[in-house]
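Appendix C: a fully annotated inverse folding record. The material below is reproduced so that readers can follow the format used throughout the book. The structure is listed first as tokens, followed by the designed sequence.
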């Protein structure tokens, strides 16, 4: 596996084509920061998982471990992972803990796996509330070697990143991120954790109607993170959260966890990211995941548009896009809509706005041209059954909608546009999508919406809003590289005692790999008993060395020490027992 650790391996080209607003989340893995204890934690979890999951996981998991080249004995290096993932059409990047859900999903749309590069501390070896490299690297990466599942993941990202969030979603994201960091950090005061837990609890109870993003995140959780496959009576594991949790992967198979057939209703089932799940959903196969996703997507403003979709964008108070029936795309923060008989007759943005067609900004219609917002009337003209977009050049001339004409356009819903037409912009099919006016006044009943001194008025042509989604149509129109998380991952503290323990772990690791070491296993054991009697994982590793070398007397000494430790710290007893049984079973 030495090639996996070769830092000179080039970046996967999929990463090179990521847009800047996603690249801002990528951070160096800093492989040298992983300590010998971190490596031992990875090794214990992976050995235990592979042993158990060979029976409990979907067969794609073990196949994928081999295909993605993820080592059981050492934490994967991102350079090596990218070299191997490239062969199955994917890439991986390191990030700092949780990133915003829309960004996480958009990475998936680019076939890029997001990996939180930190690793759980020994005290949280069974389950961590924070994303880590065990969860991402050993959980997500192997399953994407299955082509059908990989396509589901990509498609999920493509649809999910367009889901509209509520204004409260981001606040909840920051609170959950902070809670996961505090829970994973060493020696966090209980009071600090309780304070953020109360904040998360309050936000969760006062979110109001769930947003599209909240609903699709539920689907992501119950499939990608915590999914089972097969039948409720005989399920197999494929969700990364289960594949990476040596505690929950076993517990989830017991009758204590309810198994429910997967379906669209899972979108309305909330979850608590900091606790094991009391129920899980079972899909019959990977193809069914895509069926449910498409069914959910049909309910999203992305596909339904209309006044309801535009209202979702207004309530989100975030950058979004409304697409008209001509294909004209208006991107900005939406502020207002005027309706008539259930249809949008006028829409308005506030602040920087850009117009695009087919995800490409229209020349002369970037944020510099519309810095203070953009408004347009849409729909049909009063008393004319033919919409402007459907008019032929002959029709347009008949209705005097052509360059140089001073005209009054009365829309259904009492929006009136009066001015002199300068020019029109057409789409690839020849349909007119913009009409530009000078000396223009726009009114709705008694209200003035636009006046001549504001400059040129650009009427967006379209019968209706066909789509509304999160984010801009053309990412180049806006500067999106300004994300600053409200909390940073807390690194483990260093002191003389900790560094001594790290050196003992390193000595055992070197001894196992046939390298020179300042401490023989017996010396390590003596120092450990005297100075670090609370540590349990290193004695298990020492037992493995003694067992492999048939040193029964040394094995017995270690067993006696571990038995005493199990009695003193009963919560560790099953971890110790499992570690010893794994060593014995794999050598028989």
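Designed amino acids, in order:
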């Amino acid at each position: 596996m030495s090639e996996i650790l070769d830092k000179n391996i080039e970046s996967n080209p999929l990463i090179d084509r990521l847009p800047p607003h996603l690249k801002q989340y990528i951070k160096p893995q800093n492989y040298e920061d992983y300590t010998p204890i971190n490596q031992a934690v990875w090794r214990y979890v992976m050995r235990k998982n592979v042993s158990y999951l060979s029976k409990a996981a979907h067969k794609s998991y073990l196949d994928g471990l081999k295909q993605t080249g993820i080592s059981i004995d050492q934490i994967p290096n991102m350079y090596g992972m990218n070299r191997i993932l490239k062969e199955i059409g994917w890439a991986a990047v390191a990030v700092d803990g949780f990133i915003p859900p829309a960004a996480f999903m958009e990475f998936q749309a680019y076939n890029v796996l997001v990996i939180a590069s930190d690793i759980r501390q020994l005290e949280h070896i069974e389950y961590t509330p924070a994303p880590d490299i065990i969860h991402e690297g050993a959980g997500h990466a192997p399953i994407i070697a299955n082509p059908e599942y990989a396509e589901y993941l990509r498609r999920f990202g493509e649809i999910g990143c367009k889901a509209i969030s509520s204004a409260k979603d981001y606040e909840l994201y920051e609170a959950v991120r902070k809670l996961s960091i505090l829970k994973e950090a060493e020696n966090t005061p209980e009071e600090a954790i309780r304070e953020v837990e109360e904040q998360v609890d309050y936000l969760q109870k006062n979110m109001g109607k769930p947003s599209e993003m909240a609903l699709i995140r539920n689907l992501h959780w119950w499939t990608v993170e915590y999914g089972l496959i097969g039948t409720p009576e005989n399920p197999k594991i494929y969700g990364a959260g289960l594949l990476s949790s040596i505690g929950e992967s076993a517990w989830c198979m017991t009758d204590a966890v309810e198994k429910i057939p997967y379906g669209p209703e899972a979108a309305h089932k909330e979850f608590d990211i900091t606790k094991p799940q009391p129920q899980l959903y079972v899909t019959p196969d990977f193809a069914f995941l895509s069926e449910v996703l498409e069914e959910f997507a049909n309910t999203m403003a992305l596909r339904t548009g209309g006044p309801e979709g535009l209202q979702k964008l207004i309530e989100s108070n975030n950058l979004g896009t409304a697409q008209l029936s001509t294909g004209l795309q208006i991107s900005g923060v939406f502020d207002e809509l005027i309706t008539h008989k259930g249809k949008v007759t006028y829409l308005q943005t506030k602040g920087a706005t850009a117009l695009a067609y087919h995800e490409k900004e229209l020349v002369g219609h970037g944020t510099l041209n519309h810095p203070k917002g953009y408004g347009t009337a849409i729909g049909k003209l009063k008393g004319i059954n033919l919409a402007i977009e459907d008019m032929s050049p002959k029709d347009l001339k008949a209705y005097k909608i052509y360059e140089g004409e001073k005209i009054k356009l009365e829309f259904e819903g009492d929006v009136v546009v009066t001015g002199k037409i300068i020019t029109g912009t057409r789409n690839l099919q020849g349909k007119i999508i913009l009409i530009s006016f000078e000396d223009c006044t726009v009114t709705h009943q008694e209200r003035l919406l636009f006046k001549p001194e504001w400059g040129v008025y650009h009427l967006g042509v379209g019968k209706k809003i066909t789509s509304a989604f999160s984010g801009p149509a053309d990412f180049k129109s806006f500067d999106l590289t300004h994300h600053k998380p409200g909390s940073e991952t807390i690194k483990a503290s260093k002191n003389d005692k900790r560094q001594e323990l790290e050196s003992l772990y390193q000595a055992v690791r070197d001894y196992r790999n046939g390298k020179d070491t300042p401490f023989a296993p017996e010396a390590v054991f003596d120092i450990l008993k005297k100075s670090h009697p609370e540590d349990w994982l290193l004695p298990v590793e020492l037992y493995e060395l003694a067992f492999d070398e048939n040193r029964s007397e040394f094995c017995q000494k270690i067993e006696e020490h571990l038995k005493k430790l199990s009695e003193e710290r009963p919560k560790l007893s099953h971890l110790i027992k499992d570690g010893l049984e794994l060593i014995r079973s794999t050598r028989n």
